[in-house]
Recover the amino acids of this structure.
């Protein structure tokens, strides 16, 4: 990004003025004013008869249609519903008359540099609603103010005597004017000197009320158009055969049989660009088969005769990396990074009445998105059109710009609804491949990966080994905690300084930091070549499995209720300052923990026929806890109940939040139960869903009971990642109660059956 600022950290200034655009057909457009904004592209659905070409959020026309743009890509997180509802509430629109359109990338030319029309445009990373809360309320408030001014002029009464309700302005004498009848007049009114005031919470009509996903009907009826469904009539279909090693080379190729397949047009080699960082270009050499249709391209790829030569990664394996981790943790090597060091852990250990040690193992993981990587590209001399499922369109723009040299406003990026992201679509190797191929053939290209390619050439979540030690004094108090983690940083080769690579793997404020007087956490870097990246958050979120399982072990060693152990550790409600900013509110964390315990019937935990387990965590100002009930039937694990409580501050759409929490819980359970990526001789060993089995419905609970804590006094926080950390440890703790087997290695089912 420009000035090396990550796209997910870009924010719109609250002091920016809002721009109104008038159309000759009575169209009212409201958006964010930016320099050279007239260069910003608009989706076709946002275009009226005559008005400036600016990235706008709201359209009201003379027929009563209200169109609201959703700026962030929707990966299933529901932002296409929640973000427009923030605007619609401030606008006092009738939600039944609102249509939502995905805005695509908003970019204009600022002296050759990109200016982002909408500011934040990142989806599926838990930041959409917090980033939108101030800006989008201002957008809706300005539109409402203009409509009130138009009505006031028509009636000859002060605007503050009027009120808005469900798409109408209402006068004191009861006369009503529809927004449609006022739109043309409103579009001609001069802007206020200062942005109008936004609503007070008691005036909200949509915020905080449940709403179904705006795309739900299209999704369930099969009418939803994803990027993979898009096509230009003259586009060639491209499929790839990637080198098994990211640093390998092509030793031999025979394309005769491939070119003999009817419909195959060309075979091209793709090579990584020298010096490019991971995430900015292809991660492995590849051979592309381009054909007139998908079937011909796939048939042609099958007939390729290829011989690949491994690079240095050819000797790497998941087993050897785990052994490397074990050697680092067992030796006296200094850590790569000492993340936190409170008190004196060594002195506390010498005075300990009891010390507990454990090692936990987590596997490498792939994203396994439902919609595989794909990208549709058309390149002209002075324009690029790209349709792509990306979580970060600004980063996709940077790839296209670098490969084409086009100016900011010459690149158009459309982002339809995305069939799953989980962090995989924050990287754009597939975009680079499509652009490189379109340049090479001078025709539009529709690049399609198979699910096998997705599994074989992912940016994986690193496997990790956690060595934990707990120090307990004569008063049965936890006085010391020592965590040593070995993993391969998700930030390697991404422009992050070496002394900050630990930040994707550990947090200085990770529980139980600040709750234990003597606390130390160290990170040891694994030397790995396999590409890696975030997966529903940075890998640090997955540390909850080791930490919360270990707290359960501490409770068992002291023969006490695990809930009591947690509550004693959290202590009295208070706010603890975090090193990265913000606070840890132990009262809010205690509350969600008590809520799930009460709902699951925790008071009978010791005498329950089934096993009960709990866990809690905090993520960027939000709080989550899980309680799970399980039983074993022979070698079959039955998950009877799952309860999750979340506290995210103000809730925009409770129905959407509950869906996010339930979905993330099921995803986390599927990962914990079954999933692992392994590699040998540098090659991934899982190539399809048979090798990488997502949990079946029979393995998962019939429902996830979600408790949403009302907390309207605080601004909203993100939720798409929130339920991921605690499901796995709550499950493992419940399994221990049901079987007396402590699972310290994931995936759980494989390890459980080995230990039983």
């Amino acid at each position: 990004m420009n000035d090396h600022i990550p796209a997910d950290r870009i924010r719109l200034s609250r002091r920016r003025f809002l721009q109104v655009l008038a159309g000759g057909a009575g169209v009212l457009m409201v958006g964010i004013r930016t320099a050279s904004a007239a260069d910003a592209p608009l989706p076709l659905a946002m275009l009226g008869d005559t008005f400036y070409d600016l990235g706008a959020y709201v359209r009201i026309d003379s027929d009563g249609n209200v169109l609201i743009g959703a700026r962030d890509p929707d990966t299933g997180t529901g932002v296409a519903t929640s973000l427009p509802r923030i605007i619609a509430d401030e606008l006092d629109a009738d939600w039944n008359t609102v249509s939502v359109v995905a805005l695509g990338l908003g970019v204009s030319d600022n002296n050759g540099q990109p200016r982002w029309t909408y500011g934040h445009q990142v989806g599926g990373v838990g930041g959409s609603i917090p980033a939108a809360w101030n800006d989008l309320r201002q957008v809706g408030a300005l539109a409402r103010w203009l409509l009130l001014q138009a009505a006031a002029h028509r009636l000859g009464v002060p605007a503050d005597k009027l009120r808005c309700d469900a798409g109408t302005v209402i006068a004191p004498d009861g006369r009503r004017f529809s927004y449609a009848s006022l739109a043309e007049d409103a579009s001609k009114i001069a802007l206020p000197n200062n942005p109008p005031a936004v609503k007070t919470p008691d005036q909200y009509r949509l915020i905080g009320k449940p709403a179904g996903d705006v795309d739900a009907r299209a999704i369930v009826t099969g009418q939803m158009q994803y990027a993979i469904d898009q096509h230009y009539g003259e586009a060639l279909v491209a499929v790839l055969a990637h080198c098994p090693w990211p640093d390998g080379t092509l030793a031999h190729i025979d394309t005769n049989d491939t070119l003999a397949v009817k419909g195959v047009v060309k075979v091209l080699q793709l090579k990584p660009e020298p010096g490019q960082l991971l995430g900015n270009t292809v991660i492995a050499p590849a051979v592309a088969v381009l054909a007139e249709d998908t079937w011909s391209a796939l048939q042609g790829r099958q007939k390729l005769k290829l011989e690949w030569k491994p690079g240095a990664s050819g000797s790497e394996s998941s087993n050897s990396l785990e052994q490397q981790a074990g050697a680092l943790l067992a030796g006296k090597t200094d850590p790569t990074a000492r993340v936190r060091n409170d008190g004196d852990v060594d002195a506390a250990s010498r005075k300990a009445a009891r010390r507990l040690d454990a090692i936990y193992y987590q596997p490498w993981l792939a994203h396994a998105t439902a919609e595989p990587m794909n990208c549709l590209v058309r390149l002209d001399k002075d324009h690029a059109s790209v349709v792509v499922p990306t979580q970060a369109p600004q980063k996709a723009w940077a790839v296209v710009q670098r490969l084409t040299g086009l100016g900011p406003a010459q690149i158009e990026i459309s982002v339809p609804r995305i069939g799953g992201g989980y962090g995989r679509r924050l990287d754009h190797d597939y975009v680079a491949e499509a652009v490189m191929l379109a340049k090479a053939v001078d025709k539009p290209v529709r690049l399609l990966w198979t699910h096998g390619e997705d599994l074989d050439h992912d940016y994986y979540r690193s496997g990790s080994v956690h060595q934990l030690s707990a120090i307990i004094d004569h008063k049965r108090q936890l006085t010391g905690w020592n965590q040593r983690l070995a993993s391969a940083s998700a930030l390697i080769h991404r422009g992050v300084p070496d002394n900050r690579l630990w930040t994707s793997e550990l947090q200085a404020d990770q529980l139980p930091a600040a709750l234990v007087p003597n606390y130390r956490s160290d990170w040891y870097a694994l030397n790995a070549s396999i590409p890696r990246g975030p997966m529903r958050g940075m890998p640090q979120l997955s540390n909850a499995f080791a930490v919360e399982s270990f707290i359960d072990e501490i409770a068992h060693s002291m023969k006490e209720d695990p809930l009591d152990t947690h509550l004693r550790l959290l202590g009295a409600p208070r706010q603890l300052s975090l090193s990265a900013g913000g606070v840890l509110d132990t009262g809010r964390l205690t509350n969600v923990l008590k809520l799930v315990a009460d709902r699951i019937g925790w008071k009978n935990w010791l005498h329950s026929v089934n096993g009960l387990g709990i866990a809690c965590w905090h993520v960027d100002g939000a709080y989550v806890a899980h309680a799970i009930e399980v039983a074993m039937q022979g070698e079959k694990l039955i998950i009877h109940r799952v309860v999750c409580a979340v506290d995210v501050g103000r809730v925009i759409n409770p129905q959407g939040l509950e869906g996010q929490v339930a979905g993330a819980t099921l995803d986390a359970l599927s990962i914990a139960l079954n999933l692992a990526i392994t590699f040998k001789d540098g090659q991934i060993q899982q190539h399809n869903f048979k090798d990488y089995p997502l949990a079946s419905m029979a393995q998962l609970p019939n429902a996830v009971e979600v408790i949403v804590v009302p907390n309207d006094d605080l601004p909203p926080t993100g939720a798409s990642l929130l339920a991921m950390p605690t499901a796995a440890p709550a499950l493992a703790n419940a399994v221990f109660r049901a079987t007396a087997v402590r699972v310290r290695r994931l995936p759980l089912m494989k390890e459980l059956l080995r230990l039983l």
Observations:
- Residues 2-220 form a domain with the Aldehyde Oxidoreductase; domain 4 fold (CATH 3.30.365.10).
- The longest strand covers residues 622-633.
- Residues 1-26, 32-55 have pLDDT under 50 and may be disordered.
- The longest helix spans residues 128-155.
